[in-house]
């Protein structure tokens, strides 16, 4: 096809004035995932206020997270960081008896250069409890990248020999080694579903980072194959490759039936397995999605960008027949997401549409300008802009829901479309009362 | 360092942003890292605001750490000036800028040379004040700025209005029922035949702040924001102010009497006695309601009160003096207003709690076991855990505390709302007791069997475990759909795989 040469992705970078969640929000899903963990966010009232409000009702369920709120004495170094942290961690140990404590470094600990990585090993030995440090701060990272910093820190703790599980002389363990380690935090049902898909292809999952308990961290030996399930895990991938000498399988992410198929196919390819029934399985899922796809085919969508899932979601929606005007994204790792971008390009070729513009570090103000001009059928955006856009007659889907909903694998493809089509279905239903009130003005203010 | 899970009042910049976003055509620029603009989400979600929140961030990132903000803040200010042409731009420091110690004042001065808008730096220190104190301070700062400006330009209007008039000070965005309270306050002043000169900051224009001295007096409904401004106007223009919260019949009466005396000091003799009587008797149902036999049941019931100083003090008074309920203890998290609070409630309850530690409040509730709690969202959840009903009377709040229907806490209609709130909290508590006594609601076992498709299909242990993880409110539906699907395929055992298959194929 002659379009393919023109369809190279275009990357732009704006001012970085965009709205997103602070990366410390990752504690909200990670403390639930890692059952014996406790997350201590070392920061200020600002961090606490964000978590308290963003986590909503979860905060009342005695979460295994707390703030170590820095006071003026901490900032001016009148208090000793080590002693202060020791006091708090001992209290946590006594009250909650966690298997591991995560310290989440914030903007403030960065600025005052609190040496968390230096203090942790000493304190760890002192109080006999593993302490893992992750710097998930708003100076460097956006939203889901918080999980990336935590998993990268955890990767260092994965044991790298299987000596404690297998006798040294047993050479057969290499045969069992013929498997993969998956990284990325997913809810248990998704873990089960993906495991089930892989087991159908006789693929052995040797471990999952993170596991449900800290004590069950997978063994990662040099040469092991690792693969990510989420597009925002580039630091983790780098750590696994450089520090654990693992081999990274670069594949599109298992989001949407197309992504899931490619993900599994790529693993099979690397492990020399001929996939069985994979194409049929994908076709089957597509067929079951038809009812939803008919609602969005030919409709346009604009990603303002805040959680790094944007490329994968856009690729899936283009495959569903949508027109993507813009893919805003906080941070674009072209190497880690290489296979995903390639699949996006292929999908555009297949559908004979132009490759959408990928805007890194977007500027929300400029984006609103473009939205005003383009009048897309759907804007995927954060909550700060959702209501004002709705009031201007533009359908929106709140982007954070994609981070918390189950969207991976074949089984959950429907859930993505359920989310995407919800505003369209709802606003269709409301035509009679609100269509002439919330219209699209020529100038949006 | 302090171990903290929850806080009653937010960081200082939230207070500044609440003031800035309440005014019309005022834009705030936060000097903050990525993600600190969560305020916009709260405005947009809790208040369901139809407009974009006029708050942007001048992002502090690695480069700023290395080289300082340099031109970045100034560029952001001048850019916003061009894009939005606001009347006023407020540069808002955050915890991050507090420690970076950049000379923000210098940025403001340099930027203001290029902008059409006025530019000021919010004078709040993250480590010294909380959200409420910061809002009080910022409001005073903005008012002072414009009064000084008017003085220089000689546009200050000191001519009093011909008819008695008032400024209402301290209605803010994200305030607890502020929008509803405002409606009732307007009605109150209308009834009292007093003109409203200005309402600040809600929907006010900074351009008209020079008209503030025209009013005969100022009215500050909530202690948390506005007192500093009222005091300043008193010091500078000798404007008297009323700082009684008209919440509850007794407080409303005190408010009106105070207004009456202020007016008489200005040689305007009014007698509102008759009005107070009529309103208390007919418009407010609260007095009659307390008297009615239904409310005899409330005699000797116990309650505790916790919230901001304004609402907790007024609520305690209402419970004790207007409903005859025994308040075991009352407390506030407004540590800075401790003295006032003590003095307000010291004769109404035996113990006073001043703390911002929710654990302490929780322990106290568990220890004293009241029949009902009147507090914030936190106390509501403590109540849930302890099975004690709770009426929410103060921030911090949830989206459900921004109701669509008219629910003031102030004024005569407010007394009706509060009476309902109190009554409903207690009766619900009674119902629970009775249910306990008589063995609870219908047992559900017999119901579920008839709702299920049929019992011929078995579930594998793994599938059953998975089903258990599905949230309760959809579990029944998932179970039925899966069973129907399995039946149609003539499976007799539902395994995990079949569960997934059903999810993929059944259109729910």
TrEMBL record, chain A:
Organism: Liagora brachyclada
Cell compartments where the protein resides: Plastid, Chloroplast
Reaction catalyzed: chlorophyllide a + oxidized 2[4Fe-4S]-[ferredoxin] + 2 ADP + 2 phosphate = protochlorophyllide a + reduced 2[4Fe-4S]-[ferredoxin] + 2 ATP + 2 H2O
EC numbers: 1.3.7.7
GO annotation (BP), single: photosynthesis, dark reaction
GO MF annotation, one: oxidoreductase activity, acting on the CH-CH group of donors, iron-sulfur protein as acceptor
Nitrogenase/oxidoreductase component domain span: 22-423
A GO CC term assigned to this protein in UniProt: chloroplast
Cited function: Component of the dark-operative protochlorophyllide reductase (DPOR) that uses Mg-ATP and reduced ferredoxin to reduce ring D of protochlorophyllide (Pchlide) to form chlorophyllide a (Chlide). This reaction is light-independent. The NB-protein (ChlN-ChlB) is the catalytic component of the complex.
Pathway, per record: Porphyrin-containing compound metabolism; chlorophyll biosynthesis (light-independent)
One protein family per Pfam: Oxidored_nitro
Subunit (UniProt): Protochlorophyllide reductase is composed of three subunits; ChlL, ChlN and ChlB. Forms a heterotetramer of two ChlB and two ChlN subunits.
NCBIfam families attached to this UniProt entry: DPOR_bchN, PRK02842.1
HAMAP family, alphabetized: ChlN_BchN
Keywords: 4Fe-4S, ATP-binding, Chlorophyll biosynthesis, Chloroplast, Iron, Iron-sulfur, Metal-binding, Nucleotide-binding, Oxidoreductase, Photosynthesis, Plastid
Co-factor requirement: [4Fe-4S] cluster
Binding site for [4Fe-4S] cluster: 22, 47, 107
Family according to the record: Belongs to the BchN/ChlN family.
Record note on cofactor: Binds 1 [4Fe-4S] cluster per heterodimer. The cluster is bound at the heterodimer interface by residues from both subunits.
Main location: plastid
Protein known as: Light-independent protochlorophyllide reductase subunit N
Coiled-coil region: none
UniProtKB/TrEMBL annotation, chain B:
UniProt key word Metal-binding: yes
Active-site residues, record numbering mapped to chain: 294
Cofactor descriptive note: Binds 1 [4Fe-4S] cluster per heterodimer. The cluster is bound at the heterodimer interface by residues from both subunits.
Summary of subunit composition and partner proteins: Protochlorophyllide reductase is composed of three subunits; ChlL, ChlN and ChlB. Forms a heterotetramer of two ChlB and two ChlN subunits.
Record's GO cellular component terms: chloroplast
Domain Nitrogenase/oxidoreductase component residue range list: 12-426
Protein name (database record): Light-independent protochlorophyllide reductase subunit B
Binding-site residues, substrate: 429-430
UniProt xrefs under NCBIfam families: DPOR_BchB
One of the GO BP terms on file: light-independent chlorophyll biosynthetic process
Location in or out of the cell: Plastid, Chloroplast
Cofactors (names): [4Fe-4S] cluster
Catalyzed reactions per annotation: chlorophyllide a + oxidized 2[4Fe-4S]-[ferredoxin] + 2 ADP + 2 phosphate = protochlorophyllide a + reduced 2[4Fe-4S]-[ferredoxin] + 2 ATP + 2 H2O
């Amino acid at each position: 096809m002659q379009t393919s040469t023109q369809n190279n992705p275009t990357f732009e970078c704006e001012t970085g004035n965009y709205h997103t969640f602070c990366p410390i929000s990752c504690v909200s899903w990670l403390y639930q995932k890692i059952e014996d963990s406790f997350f201590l966010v070392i920061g200020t009232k600002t961090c606490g206020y964000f978590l308290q409000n963003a986590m909503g009702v979860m905060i009342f369920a005695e979460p295994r997270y707390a703030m170590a709120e820095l006071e003026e004495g901490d900032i001016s170094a009148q208090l000793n960081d080590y002693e202060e942290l020791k006091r708090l961690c001992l209290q946590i140990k006594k009250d909650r008896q966690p298997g591991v404590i995560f310290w989440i470094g914030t903007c403030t600990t960065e600025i005052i250069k609190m040496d968390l990585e230096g203090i942790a090993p000493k304190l760890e030995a002192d109080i006999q409890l593993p302490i893992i440090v992750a710097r998930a701060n708003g100076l460097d990272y956006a939203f889901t990248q918080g999980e990336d910093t935590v998993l990268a820190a955890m990767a260092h703790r994965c044991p790298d020999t299987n000596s404690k599980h297998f006798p040294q002389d047993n050479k057969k363990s290499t045969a069992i080694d013929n498997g993969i380690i998956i990284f990325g935090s997913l809810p248990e049902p998704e873990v089960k579903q993906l495991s089930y898909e892989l087991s159908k292809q006789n693929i052995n999952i040797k471990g999952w980072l993170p596991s449900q308990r800290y004590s069950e961290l997978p063994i990662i030996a040099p040469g092991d194959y690792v693969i990510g399930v989420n597009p925002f895990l580039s630091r983790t991938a780098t750590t696994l490759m450089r520090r654990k000498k693992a081999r990274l399988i670069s594949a599109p992410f298992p989001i949407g039936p197309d992504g899931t198929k490619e993900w599994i196919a790529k693993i099979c390819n690397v492990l020399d397995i001929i996939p069985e029934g994979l194409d049929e399985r994908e076709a089957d899922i597509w067929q079951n999605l038809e009812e939803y796809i008919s609602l969005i085919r030919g409709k346009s969508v604009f990603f303002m960008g805040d959680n790094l899932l944007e490329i994968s979601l856009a690729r899936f929606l283009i495959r569903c027949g949508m027109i993507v005007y813009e893919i805003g994204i906080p941070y674009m790792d072209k190497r880690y997401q290489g296979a995903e971008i390639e699949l996006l390009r292929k999908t555009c070729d297949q559908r004979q549409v132009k490759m959408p513009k990928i805007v890194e570090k977007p500027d929300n103000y400029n984006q609103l300008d473009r939205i005003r001009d383009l009048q897309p059928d759907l804007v995927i955006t954060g909550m700060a802009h959702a209501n004002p856009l709705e009031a201007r007659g533009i359908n929106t889907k709140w982007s954070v829901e994609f981070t918390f909903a189950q969207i991976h694998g074949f089984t959950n493809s429907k859930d993505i479309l359920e989310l995407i089509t919800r505003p369209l279905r709802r606003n269709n239903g409301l035509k009679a009362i609100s269509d002439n009130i919330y219209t699209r003005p020529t100038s949006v203010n | 360092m302090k171990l903290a899970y929850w806080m009653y009042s937010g960081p200082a910049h939230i207070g500044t942003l609440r003031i800035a976003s309440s005014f019309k055509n005022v834009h705030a620029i936060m000097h903050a890292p990525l993600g600190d603009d969560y305020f916009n989400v709260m405005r947009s979600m809790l208040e369901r605001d139809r407009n974009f929140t006029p708050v942007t961030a001048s992002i502090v990132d690695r480069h700023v750490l290395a080289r300082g903000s340099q031109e970045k803040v100034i560029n952001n200010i001048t850019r916003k000036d061009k894009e939005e042409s606001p009347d006023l731009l407020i540069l808002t420091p955050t915890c991050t800028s507090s420690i970076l110690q950049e000379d923000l004042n210098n940025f403001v001065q340099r930027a203001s040379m290029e902008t059409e808008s006025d530019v000021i730096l919010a004078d709040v220190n993250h480590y010294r004040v909380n959200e409420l104190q910061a809002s009080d301070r910022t409001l005073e700062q903005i008012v002072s700025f414009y009064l000084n400006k008017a003085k220089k330009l000689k546009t200050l209007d000191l001519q009093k209005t011909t008819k008695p008039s008032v400024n209402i000070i301290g209605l803010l965005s994200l305030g607890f029922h502020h929008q509803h309270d405002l409606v009732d306050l307007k009605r109150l002043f209308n009834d009292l035949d007093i003109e409203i000169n200005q309402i600040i900051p809600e929907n006010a224009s900074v351009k008209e702040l020079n008209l503030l001295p025209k009013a005969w007096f100022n009215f500050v409904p909530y202690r948390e924001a506005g007192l500093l401004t009222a005091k300043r106007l008193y010091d500078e223009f000798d404007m008297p102010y009323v700082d009684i919260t008209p919440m509850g019949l007794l407080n409303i009466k005190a408010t009106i009497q105070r207004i009456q005396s202020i007016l008489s000091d200005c040689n305007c003799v009014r007698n509102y006695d008759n009005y107070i009587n009529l309103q208390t008797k007919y418009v407010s149902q609260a007095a009659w309601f307390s008297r009615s036999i239904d409310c005899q049941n409330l005699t000797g019931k116990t309650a505790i009160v916790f919230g901001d100083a304004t609402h907790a003090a007024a609520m305690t008074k209402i419970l004790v003096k207007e409903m005859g309920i025994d308040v075991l203890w009352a407390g506030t998290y407004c540590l800075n207003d401790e003295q006032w609070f003590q003095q307000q409630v010291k004769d109404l309850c035996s113990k006073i709690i001043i703390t911002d530690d929710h654990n302490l409040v929780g322990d106290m509730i568990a220890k004293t076991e009241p029949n009902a709690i009147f507090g914030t969202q936190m106390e509501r959840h403590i109540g849930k855990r302890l099975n004690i009903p709770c009426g929410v009377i103060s921030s911090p709040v949830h989206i459900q505390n921004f109701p669509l229907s008219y629910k003031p806490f102030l004024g005569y209609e407010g007394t009706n709302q509060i009476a309902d709130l109190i009554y409903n909290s207690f009766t619900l508590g009674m119902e629970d007791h009775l249910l306990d006594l008589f063995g609870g609601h219908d047992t559900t076992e017999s119901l579920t069997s008839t709702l299920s498709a049929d019992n011929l299909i078995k579930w594998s242990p793994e599938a059953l475990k998975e089903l258990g993880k599905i949230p309760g409110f959809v579990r029944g539906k998932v179970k039925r759909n899966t069973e129907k699907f399995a039946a149609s395929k003539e499976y007799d055992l539902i395994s995990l795989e079949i569960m997934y298959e059903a999810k993929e194929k059944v259109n729910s």
